[in-house]
Known about the structure:
32% of the residues lie in helices and 20% in strands. By secondary structure, it is α+β, with helices and mostly antiparallel strands. The protein has a 5-stranded antiparallel beta sheet, sandwiched between helices. Helix 2 runs parallel beside helix 5, helix 4 runs antiparallel to helix 5 (137-148) and helix 5 (137-148) crosses helix 6 (151-164). The two termini are 33 Å apart.
Amino acid sequence: MFKSLISLLLASTLSLGGISSNNYGSFKENSLLSVASIPIKQAELVSPAAMSATSIIAIDLESQTILFQKNSDLKLPIASLTKLMTAYIALDEEDPDAMVTISPNSAAMTGSRMGLRSGEKITVKNLLYGLLIPSGNDAAVALAEYNAGTEKIFVQKMNAKAKLLGLDQTQYTNSTGLDNGESYSTPHDLALLASYLIRDNTIRQIVNLKEAEIAGHKLENTNTLLGQMGIKGIKTGRTDAAGECLVTLAENSAGKEVLIVVLGSQNRFYDTKILLDWIYRAYIW
Length: 285
């Protein structure tokens, strides 16, 4: 059951530290109990080719070792990566089988949509599909209203949850990620949030789907990298203010998972491929 995830996630936050200011270092400062193997960097592969993204972080998910970073604590708009927190709260607090009645307000949302209709009844779990596959703004607002009554109150919960999880450089002003000058996060914070979220197997399943038909809605994933280079999620984002953003989960040939966050990119998919190719060549697990 989704609610059981919270105890594991909160326990994890107690041992998670900040990121080292070095180019490469420990994402998890307190790892005395960790038995994860630490990836070893080959000295001759100094750095990847140039990437357009303003800020980046890449970590080995198991050991939480930083593999690469660039301006990883720079606060920037994050577009639809906002929806990761929307999904987190829905997982934390709602029964996935609970039925949601879609309001005229959520049905009228513009931008990316799953195609909800006013008065439609749909489960929380199915809204998560619509939230994470086509990045539905309508699904985001529907979840926010169901959880908190209004999106405004839900945003207050988003910011409180961010503080609880140690996302100290994050602020939300809506559930969707639509441009607002007061919304921001960092690659560091987003890597933490994503690492918590993907511990849930249902989330992993959803974000790895290229397409799906859910409750009569045909959904196509906005992440065109799925299936390439071991990539299996997790979320795209793009607005005028944020540029192109992407959080990526990938698995190398040794079965080791890498998490990459790219913000403020001119070509998020190209940047991610450049970095992931370098990581696969530069590190030995």
